[in-house]
Amino acid sequence: MESYESLAFSYDELTQDVQYESRADFVEKLFGRAKIPVHTVLDLACGTGTMTAIFTQRGYELIGVDQSEEMLMEAREKAQTLRGIPPLFLHQSMPELDLYGTVDACICCLDSLNYLTRPCEVQQTFERLKLFIAPGGAFVFDVHAPHKMEALDDQVFLDERDDIYCVWRTEYRKRAKMLDYYVDMFRLCEDGAWERSFEEHHQRAYTAQELTQWLKDAGFTGIRTHGDGKLRRSNEHDGRIYFSCIRK
To answer: Looking at residues 195-213, what average pLDDT do you find?
Structure first.
């Protein structure tokens, strides 16, 4: 089963503790680094479209892109009741991004970039973004710090709701810099029976130095790292690292 094929329909319920509004506040602050006014925004790997919805209701015009049809189905449903310009949703992978024109800014949130498990995919994504972010526009994204991913080795996480029971088991392969998630999910059906599904998720660790160099190679400038929700420069204690940069 592909990542998020089953989990998509319970994703919002299982991520109720994610502080989306405060994350959006921080990302919006980083839009201030753009050399042009930001109105059109690409939400790359938008998932179920929560960030897409927040920025739409803040007056931005959004394009949401995701590789998972199931996640996009949830995002489109969520967008039905939004105020503002209805978002456009596209079913695409990050390295094969293809828009109809340019945007003023791009966001890629909640370690989505770590799901690109080959360095060439990250490089291709940055090169595609160079084509579709207008000169002077902003690119803001976050990744898991490598030390955080390594520390997740051999961990088990449980998430229980009235109608959902989810177990995440993790394994970090140090030589490959890969973190594997094995997800068992049990959903309560209308007839009272429990339905089980299983998914594997894979993320790769990337250093700030690697990502910075690839951004430079693709044509981005003014590259800065930030702590999680902090405008200061990231340090070795940050588990999540934000990047902000400008398209030349």
So the answer is: 96
